[in-house]
Design the sequence.
């Protein structure tokens, strides 16, 4: 099972709010991948390791296999394709 988590801040972060619709669209394009997004302001204990937003973590069988910082739509798509 493959999963990707988008760690973001509230919508005061312009970059985070710009990539979120694309992240949601990709969930339809990659149906075998579980898409999760986590607001770091709402769950600081579990997201204290996140230093930049947005940050994407890619997991396979519970192990982190990749990460991406920033909101590059093409790069996000490529990493989803690579890991799915």
Sequence:
């Amino acid at each position: 099972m493959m999963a990707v988590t988008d760690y973001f801040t509230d919508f005061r972060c312009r970059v985070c709010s710009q990539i979120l619709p694309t992240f949601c669209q990709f969930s339809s394009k990659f149906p075998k991948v579980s898409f999760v997004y986590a607001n770091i302001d709402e769950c600081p204990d579990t997201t204290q390791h996140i230093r930049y937003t947005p940050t994407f973590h890619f997991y396979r069988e519970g192990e982190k296999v990749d990460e991406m910082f920033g909101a590059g739509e093409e790069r996000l798509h490529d990493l989803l394709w690579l890991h799915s």
Notes: Residues 2-83 form a domain with the Glutaredoxin fold (CATH 3.40.30.10). Residues 14-29 form the longest helix (16 residues). The chain has a mean pLDDT of 93.
